[in-house]
Amino acid sequence: MVRLKRNTYFLRTLLMWGLVFSAGDNEEKFPSKDVPKTSTSPTNTVQVRKRWRKDGLCGRKYSYPDGTSAAAECDPNGKAPCCSRKYDGRCGNTTSHCSCDDCSDYRIIYREWEESGGTQRWRGDGMCGSDFPLLDGTPAECNPDSDIPCCRVQYCSTSTPASGWRCACSNCIDYKAVRELRELGEECGIVRLPTGYLKHMCFDEESKKVSFKCPYSDVLYKLENNYVTPAPSVSRTCINDPYVYQACGFGAKVTGVGLLCGGYFCKNSYYAKYDVMKCAGDGCGAEKKDCTTTGDPDIILCDGSCDSTYCNDEMECNGLKYGVSCKKRNLPHYVQVYGVCDGINGCTDGSDERDCTVTDSTQNTCTQYLVKMVYDRDVRVPILNYTRCSIVDLSVKAYPYCVDYSDQTNCSDTTRIGGFCRVNGYMTAVSKSVVCLGFNQEPDTPIKLCDDQLQKQCVSLADCTIHKHHLCDKRADCLYDSDETLDTCKIMTDVLGFTCHRRFNRKNGNIPLPISWLMDGIADCMEADDEDPDKWRFCAGVSKQIVAPGTKCQDMFKCPHKDVYVSLGQLCDGVESCSDGSENSVCRIARDFPIIIKQVPYNGTMRSLCGTNNTSCEVREFSTPWGSNNIFGVNRRTELVVPTSRLYSCKHIFGELYVFASCMDLCSEMEVKCPFDYMNTNLKHDSCPGQFPDRTFTIVDNSFLTFFVKSVSGYYHQEFYQCQNGRCLEYKKVCDLIDDCGDMSDELNCANHMICEDTRNSTKHQFISLYQKCDGIDDCFDISDECNSGCGKQILGTQVLKIVCWFMGILAVIFNSFSMVKGFMSLNDCETEQMMTSTALMSLIGSGDFLIGLYLVILSVYDSIILGDDFCKHQAEWLTGTTCLILGVISTLGSQVSLFAMTVLSLIRMYGITWNPMRLPKPVSRKDMVKVISMGGMVIAAAFAVAVTPLIPSLEDNFVQGMYYDPTYRVFVGFPNKARHIKVLEEYYKQNSTENFTQISTMMSWREIGEKVENMFSQDHGILTKNPVHFYGNDGVCLFKYFVRTDDARRSRQTFETGEDSAGNLVVWTMLAVNFICFIIITCCYIVIICKTRMSSQSSGQQDNPKRLKGERAIQNKIMVIIATDFICWVPFIAISALHNLKYIDASSWYAAFAMTVLPLNSVINPLLYDKAIEEVARRNLKKLKKLLGLDTHNKTVPVDGQVPEITLTERVTAET
Known about the structure:
The protein is of the alpha+beta class and 1217 residues long. The chain is 28% helix and 12% strand. The longest helix has 39 residues, at 1062-1100.
């Protein structure tokens, strides 16, 4: 029989050899031309050792020809370059030898090594170590740039920390870390392990061994086992490491209590396993076989996950037991929950099967999981207290007790409750273990549990899978913070004032929900308030908005790219709500956000706070309050070039500039403090949850863990600010006027901002820079930046203007009302055409001047009595309202009626004196009356046309220079002009592929602009309210805007946001020209009259008559006064307007003063010049005043009786004037 077996083996071997050598005839050969040969010629500088045997055998069963290794290979340049296990370790060249899973093609394995000239240190088959050397005989390494850089037991494997550092063993080498040492050019150096920890590692190139140094010490220690975390000697080696930092990064979890990373590691002698559990004392003696929980508490115990082999680290937590602890074979034994009542005694005394009988009185039963899954038998078992809510993790074979997972309800331990839902109609606590279990796939057995399956309402993101109730809760649960940056999180119920306890997220208390969860058929709140129809109602429209009853539905801002809507309360708050970034870009242009510099500039070598004007500078190190301590492995700190003295005004800098300047004591303001002074704690290893996944851990002051990140230039830094809610920001986002934290802690303690009043008591402040305060541009939604104690506005800004306005208005009303009434009443008494014409025109002059006086009085009443200090808050309503419009029409109508009437009167007088001086007056006829009425009507019509033409709706594109929007829409603040609108529309519609972007142009009308702006909102609940800034609303005094420039509509910070208004300017230039021509006509007419009177006196021979001379002087004086007052009123005003419009000067701030003091001057003086009765009253009162003051030195002249002088042209002129 033995011989038969031997012969059979011999035959089988011969058959195998035959198959191998005949394979070339039966199978496709692997063409050698497909793989380049490995050169072994003398020209190759690499010394190649022969790795193959003459008999063609290969693999681990067969050693090298010299017998030094059990891994014979095949000749890469021979006829059989491939080794296959299929043929019992024979070299060949068929597809079965070269292309199978267990095949090794040595042409490919050594190709990269040969092409590199022997400089590459790894093989192509992923093997490593001395048993698998390279062709030059040196042990093969692993590719540090691959995903398998760790050489572990002859294989290159992963070193990622998913299950602990795979290279934490005595014979393991992580070549990614070794490469860092080689780049340092040292045998020992501080490197970053793949687990993220800095370690002082040493690598011996000859022995290929790795060792470590204790932190802050030269004492060496080595890892002593091959498969688990470091042995107890690791913890005892470093006597200067009281918190056992050297245990960190080798697979142990960070505990944060007592010891940093798990402390000592104890071996369970019965199962020959290392359980990651902390023990008391200096180590684990032989008597501590199970590593019990004595000693300091440790989060590894009862942390909700199975860390030991049989999950015995979770068997007794918070006074409750799970499973059964007993003895078996006189040794401690633990029966997990799924092994209870399985029909097999796991304990010697059978205690795990003791309480398994189901009777009629048993209330809670289920089908035992293990029996059903292994034996396919339905065995009903009671649900016991110690079988409820155990840890379930199918990946580590921690199974449930019941098939239907009903053992995972009614948890007594509150720390194991994952949420609440109705099970069979009753509100029940559900364990964390079943949350999201099988949510995206069907498990082996159905999981019913929640009636509404709420435990399965989970979301699978790129970096984690979590329950929906952990989304948008201001706590980052995913690695890259993705659970807090979803579009769903953009609009929350806090804008409606609603918060609640989420059923599967009670740890955060009352928190808002995403609005999209309201009335969606799933009760997310404990009391189901989110689905209560009495609490919410749907708003009609595309935005699908839900509001509380009694709350007004509002339109929403439409993000251009997606079907995403932003509530008006969250619009333009500095936090981007549209995924394409369109919200902030549109708001920046629309609201004229200032451009601020947040980052410190580089001077070529390092960041510099030293400006060009700073002559004395130095290099200083910047350290945070915790960064100035002894940080293991981080030697390079942040260095900046700074001035040697306090030079910075920190109230006008932001971001990095503010942080560095304030924390390095460079601020000129002593009250400015460093933002870190308000932080509650140092940055720890677990700070900034969910952020900076590539963080590097290290120890500070040999006492606590912190983290750093690696900069682009390759050094570790920790330039982060921690918000009060735990979120962390880069320095450039601190004190930058934007609530990046979400709780405003990055802005509240900064000294470089102003908080707008209407947001001061809210949970979302609006911050603006200090130089935006009182700069004449509205930035706050309530315009409190321009309406405050420092720069409150009134219609008339100074007391002098108020007094002048009251004084001139009252005088103009009194004088002109008397003149106007007297003139109109005397029209019936006029006996001649000339008298009626003159009286009618002077009455019109009085009427126009009366309107000017009435305008001044009404404006003074609104300024001093009705609005007063509140004008600033109501200026938008004033500038776009009817009152200002009517006042503008009254003032323009009055001034133009008076001016045109004076012009016509001057022409008529000049005509009467020049062309028909001696014509006898004729009685008034009906035709004369019609002529006078027509002339007066033409004057009034011309003036009225000038006043109302800018208000014609069809001409709004020429005269409307700004638009005021309902403040609740929040995009536009103030009075944006047409050019600003165009920029906003270009920015918005370039993101929107559904709109025709080419329709946006500078030639758009206000109507077209309005339609485009309305399309930016949902328009479900009314039309976007907007009011044009009419022609008279450019200034609070509501006058015809003579001081107009292309950028005068409203001021702007951005130079490209100014617009052209050529048509409006043409009207202004035309009116300036008309008024100037009227002044020239009046002046020329009266000069002609003076000349004619002199010529008349000389021709009559009475040029020496004292009385005639006195009359001529009186006429000349009156005419000179008329010309002078007209000159003062119009010429300087016209000149300054022209210079302003031509941009030689900026006279915007002068307009109110000119309008209140210069233009109304004629309205007060005209009654004295054109009405003899008022002139006589004024003259008598003036004489009385002179006499009272003793200034009357002239004797009264009495005419000689009997001497009646001849009537000459002088008397005629006197009568005319």
